[in-house]
Design brief:
The complex is a heterodimer of chains A (about 425) and B (about 675). Chain A contains 18 helices and 3 strands. Chain A has about 425 residues and is mainly α. Chain A has one domain. Chain A has a 3-stranded antiparallel β-sheet, covered by helices on one side. In chain A, a hairpin with a 2-residue loop joins strand 2 and strand 3. In chain A, helix 2 runs antiparallel to helix 3, helix 6 runs parallel beside helix 18 and helix 11 packs antiparallel against helix 12. With about 675 residues, chain B is α+β, with helices and mostly antiparallel strands. Chain B folds into 2 domains: about 150 residues, Penicillin-binding protein 2a (Domain 2) (Alpha-Beta Complex); about 425 residues, Beta-lactamase (3-Layer(aba) Sandwich). In chain B, the strands form 7 sheets. In chain B, strands 2, 3, 4, 5, 10 and 18 form a 6-stranded mixed β-sheet that branches. In chain B, strands 12-11-22-21-20 form a 5-stranded antiparallel β-sheet, with helices on both faces. The N and C termini of chain B lie far apart (about 95 Å). The relative contact order of chain B is 0.10. At the A-B interface, helix 9, helix 14, helix 15, helix 16 and helix 17 of A face helix 1 and helix 2 of B. Chain A: Keywords: Cell shape, Membrane, Transmembrane, Transmembrane helix. Chain A: Pfam families: FTSW_RODA_SPOVE. Chain A: One of its GO terms (cellular component) is cell division site. Chain A: Its main location: membrane. Chain A: This is Rod shape determining protein RodA.
Chain lengths: ~425, ~675
């Protein structure tokens, strides 16, 4: 009886989009990892075979989540969170190091990446915390409290080090903004990033001059807020300090490969055989797709294996090459529909908890989507994050599936909420 | 407001991504090319070049396999450099240099390490090839010449240059193309069409199968064999006769226009332009600006034809009706055609009719004929145009359209030409009288002379000379089977032919008769000039002879030019007679002494004069030239000293003066270039 109502109340639009994306993802993994010799679809020694297995195993997972009591997620969110933190800590002792990053547990043939699941746990805890009626995000103390929920895992993940995943957590700030976090957090973030990039491209003296000009204009035009010259002065000194320290930060704090990625993006002279290779091949694959692409399984870049890690982080290059502009646009459109649908559903929630959680899901997925695709087309520095539902990997597929279906379950359960 | 922030950000981002994709995928074309460069490897299948045969079916040019050692620098592993170098007979420094060069081209793509090994070298290397990772053999096909003559007829094979690639997209870098001779003319027929295979490759440059299941692939089309009109025995004989001389021989079968022999001297063995030494040898030939072995004199040497041109003067005169067979002129050891204007003649003087005029080569006779021809018309310009119209019907003054590199046009002046020289008018028949004896503004190449003789032999028509006889499966070009009929009526050729026949019996070629063959011919001497230290100076005359034989039912028409050979009878006439004898009798030559004298005779001393700054001095030529030869020998050592340069200058001034005095006979006219 209860199950019946869940099935009836499931948001089928979300489920359908999810299913389409997973199938499309598998098709592209199949193309990207297809060996020259003929093999069967379900060959566990092949990447696409394993992914098929992951997809099939996701189905019982979905049923388990949908049949669970929706209350459990709120009730035990702290437990999940603490488990997640421990799993991250455990990596330092038992984790497997691949390419300098210790972010995997190895179980036999399969790897397990805890940070994928910590995202969900963090979202649950954040939702629980912020939905507490005691919490007011206008208060600085509460703001720090909320921020620390995801800053703690960020810290641990940065130590792996995995800057990409850490960045995803940072995007939760959008959720807090929706729940009342003052807007200067966002502005500070945006301006900070913008200044950092500009400082790498433009000479600092021009940038500081420009900032000064903007601030003077702002000071003159500003009539609403108290025009305290001291605050303006402090802000200016801070900005100047930041701009001047960018070079230092860039040269000493960033890892060489991170510098390379930024260099590639801002068009510095790079070696296309070395640090520029990945981006160059990725752009060639996508750029040679034209309107309708080279045809499914016909991509020369894909078949030739020119794009490294094509079945994981670079899976969208296959879409671009083989399905062309039209295909890539359709995929982007489907993702956007999914995000907007989730936000729409979140706003419809009766409890603040599930609304915040829904927002977290949308934000996570969107950030993955944006960072992943824009790094392939030279809009963003190369950061290794998977494309949800598309990229190869059991951990990420299951983690995203669990994350999404917990929300679907919450949404389906809202009839029982009062 | 806060509710709309995230949806707004999502939509804006999506638009940004799609716009960026639109730019990359639709607007920017460069990725498509980069992708093809990355992933598609074009493999060519080169067909074997067609063979070349002579008119009797003798194989002249075949192919030989050749082997290039290719290297992919990145794949070299565990190489025993010492053994490798020993087998290939190269030094270690060589090896390092070649590898570096290959690396600069590309570490991942194959480049030629050592080109064109022969079979022996290949056999030694092939046993060990498996040991040498990163190296492999690419088979190619090179020309294999069965004869050591005819280099100018065959042409040669070379790698295409950038200009050719730009003009003809068929050729890709490294492809071979025929240059000069029939290799150039019949390039497309001999070459065939190469097959193309599009192969897909992965990032390790490994072949991963055909691109798009091979729908764009094509199969190679074999090159076709061709048969030339050349008689290789005659060609060999001609080249032997021309040894140590400069000049050309063109022999044509009058009945068909088929070129039987096309000799240029000096020449070279075509085989030296094949294989590893090719580029070195070619550079040497190319840079030899003195004897110019790449200059095909049969087609390119333009000279005032001299006496053989009198044949045409007479034919035009007959056709225009200004003379007939019996017309007589008096020769006073020359022809006085105006006040103080006198054209000298060496025929001995006396009353001349057409017949005697021809076999004695009387300048005065033909001066008169020419004057009458031009003066027949109201204005000299009409006369000249009528005259040049007749000559052009012999294919003179223009490219003949044969299937060899186009050669030179020669020159037949029209009234426009003289109007340019005399803008105010005032030129008359006498102004241009030198044309009558082939010395004025008239220029002809040896092949034009030979074709003129073929036309006379045919009594009024010719076929465009051509070198192609058969192309496997294709009839030869229709233009070579079309009769060109001249404006001279058939009846006028008979008296001319009789005159030419008596050149042998009574005239200038008496010494070159061949027993049992009735030859009709005409001697000639062609004046020629060169520039030494910026001054135009006259050199020893070229020896010219034209002929056809036999008189009845002619089988061969021939023109022989021997540079600086002096009188036509000295070199050109004997060589012509030997060529005719060889072609018609086929068996051994009876006049062994003459043959030996011609084959062994050398004009090198004459040619050295120009190089050393001594040249023709008209006053008492024979004695002088001997003296000069001696001086030449003496001065060879210090040729480059400054004092000698001074001497040379003085000499040239002196000689210039001499020329002005003595060369009046032919120089009463605007100087032709």
């Amino acid at each position: 009886m209860k199950n019946q109502s869940v099935i009836n109340n499931i948001d089928w639009i979300t489920v359908i989009i999810y299913t389409i994306l997973v199938i499309m993802g598998w098709m592209n993994i199949y193309s990207a990892s297809l060996p020259i010799e003929e093999t069967s679809f379900f060959d566990l020694s092949q990447t696409y075979g394993k992914q098929m297995l992951f997809i099939i195993l996701a189905i019982p997972l979905i049923f388990v989540i949908l049949s669970m009591d929706a209350k459990i997620f709120e009730k035990y969110s702290t437990v999940f969170y603490i488990l997640g933190i421990f799993s991250l800590l455990g990596l330092f002792a038992f984790g497997k190091t691949i390419k300098g990053q210790t972010n995997w547990y190895q179980f036999g043939g399969f790897g397990f990446q805890p940070s994928e699941f910590v995202k969900t746990a963090t979202a649950l805890v954040l939702a629980k915390l912020v939905s507490d009626t005691q919490i007011n995000l206008k208060k600085f103390k509460h703001q720090l409290f909320a921020l620390s929920v995801f800053c703690f895992p960020i810290l641990l993940i940065m130590m792996q080090p995995d800057a990409g995943s850490a960045m995803i957590f940072l995007s939760l700030i959008f959720v807090l903004y929706r729940e009342g976090l003052p807007s200067w957090y966002l502005w500070t973030g945006f301006i900070g990033i913008a200044l950092f990039i500009l400082a790498l491209v433009v000479k600092p003296i021009f940038l500081i001059g420009f900032v000064l000009l903007v601030m003077i204009i702002h000071f003159i035009l500003n009539t609403r807020i108290t025009r305290n010259p001291i605050i303006y002065g402090i802000i200016f000194v801070l900005i100047t300090g930041m701009v001047l320290s960018v070079d230092y930060v860039y040269e000493t704090v960033l890892e060489p490969h991170q510098k390379d990625r930024i260099n590639v993006l801002i068009g510095e002279d790079v070696n296309m055989q070395k640090e520029g290779y990945n981006l160059n091949q990725s752009m060639i694959a996508i750029g040679s797709g034209s309107w309708l692409g080279k045809g499914y399984l016909e991509g020369t870049q894909t078949k030739g294996g020119f794009v490294p890690e094509q079945h994981t982080d670079y899976i969208f290059t296959t879409v671009g090459e083989e399905w062309g502009f039209v295909g890539a646009s359709v995929v982007i459109f489907l993702f956007v529909c999914l995000f907007l649908r989730i936000i729409y559903l979140a706003e419809r929630q009766k409890t603040k908890f599930s609304r915040i959680y829904g927002y977290c899901v949308a934000t996570y997925l969107f950030t993955h989507f944006f960072v992943n695709i824009s790094m392939l087309i030279k809009l963003f520095p190369t950061i290794g994050v998977p494309l949800p539902f598309f990229s190869y990997g059991g951990s990420s597929l299951w983690a995203f599936t669990i994350m999404l279906y917990i929300f679907i379950k919450m949404d389906a359960n809202k009839v029982n909420e009062w | 407001m806060r509710k709309l922030f995230l949806p707004g950000l999502i939509v804006v981002t999506a638009v940004l991504l799609i716009a960026r994709l639109f730019y990359l995928q639709i607007l920017d074309d460069s990725f498509k090319i980069k992708s093809d460069n990355n992933a598609i490897k074009i493999v060519y299948d080169y067909p074997e070049r067609g063979y070349i045969y002579d008119r009797n079916g003798e194989l002249l040019v075949a192919n030989q396999p050749s082997y290039d050692i290719m290297v992919i620098p990145k794949d070299i592993k565990n190489l025993d450099t010492l053994e490798f170098c020993t087998i290939l007979n190269i030094t270690k420094e060589d090896f390092i240099k070649k590898i570096e060069k290959a690396k600069i081209y590309s570490p991942r793509l194959p480049s030629v390490f050592l080109p064109q090994l022969n079979k022996m070298e290949y056999a030694a290397f092939q046993e060990k090839i498996r040991k040498y990772e990163g190296f492999y053999i690419q088979k190619r096909s090179l020309r294999d010449y069965q004869v050591n003559v005819g280099a100018n007829v065959f042409g040669y094979i070379t790698q295409v240059n950038d200009a050719i690639i730009k003009k003809h997209p068929y050729y890709k870098s490294g492809d071979l193309i025929g240059m000069q001779g029939v290799e150039q003319t019949y390039e497309e027929i001999l070459r065939g069409i190469k097959g193309v295979k599009y192969r897909q490759r992965d990032r390790f440059n490994k072949d991963i199968g055909p691109y798009k299941e091979g729908i764009y692939d094509t199969i190679a089309v074999q090159g076709k064999d061709i048969t030339l009109t050349l008689d290789v025995e005659l060609q060999k004989y001609g080249e032997a006769l021309m040894k140590n001389k400069r000049g050309g021989i063109v022999a044509i079968e009058p009945r068909t226009g088929e070129i039987l022999a096309l000799v240029t001297a000096p020449s070279y063995d075509p085989a030296i332009l094949v294989g590893r030494e090719r580029s070195k040898n070619y550079t040497a030939l190319y840079n030899d600006s003195i004897s110019m072995p790449l200059f095909d004199r049969g087609l390119l040497a333009e000279y005032p034809p001299g006496s053989p041109f009198k044949i045409l003067t007479a034919l035009v005169g007959l056709q225009e009706g200004v003379i007939d067979e019996k017309t007589q002129f008096v020769c006073n050891h020359g022809f006085s055609y105006g006040r103080g204007s006198f054209m000298r003649c060496h025929c001995g003087g006396g009353v001349r009719d057409l017949h005697v005029g021809i076999y004695k080569s009387c300048n005065a006779y033909f001066g008169n004929v020419y004057k009458r021809t031009i003066d027949k018309f109201q204005k000299p310009r009409y006369g000249v145009n009528a005259w040049s119209g007749h000559l052009k019907s012999f294919g003179l003054g223009n490219f003949m359209g044969y299937d060899l590199p186009p050669g030179r046009k020669g020159h037949i002046p029209t009234s426009n030409y003289y109007d340019r020289w005399y803008p105010n008018g005032g030129w008359r028949s006498t102004t241009i009288i030198s044309n009558s004896i082939g010395q004025g503004e008239v220029l002809m190449t040896p092949i034009q002379l030979a074709n003129m003789m073929a036309t006379v032999a045919n009594e009024g028509y010719y076929y465009t000379p051509h070198i192609i006889k058969k192309i496997k499966g294709q009839p030869i070009d229709k233009k070579f089977r079309t009769k060109h009929i001249t404006t001279i009526d058939k009846q006028y050729f008979k008296p001319i032919i009789n005159g030419l026949f008596d050149v042998y019996n009574l005239g200038t070629a008496y010494g070159s008769r061949v027993e049992g063959i009735e030859i009709c011919g005409k001697t000639g001497t062609a004046e020629n000039f060169t520039k030494i230290n910026g001054k135009r100076v006259q050199l020893q005359d070229h020896s010219v002879f034209v002929a056809f034989a036999p008189r009845i039912n002619p089988k061969i028409a021939i023109a022989v030019l021997v540079e600086n050979g002096h009188y036509g009878a000295t070199w050109a006439a004997p060589i012509t007679s030997l060529m005719i004898e060889k072609y018609i009798k086929k068996d051994t030559i009876t006049r062994v002494d003459l043959e030996r004298r011609m084959m062994e005779g050398s004009l090198q001393a004459e040619y050295d004069k120009v190089v050393n700054g001594f040249y023709f001095e008209p006053k008492d030529k024979k004695k002088d030239s001997k003296e000069k030869t001696e001086v030449t020998e003496k001065n060879k050592g210090d040729k480059k000293t400054g004092t000698q340069k001074e001497d040379k200058k003085d000499d040239s001034q002196k000689n210039n003066a001499n020329i002005k005095v003595t060369a009046t006979d032919n120089k009463q006219k605007p100087k032709n270039k």
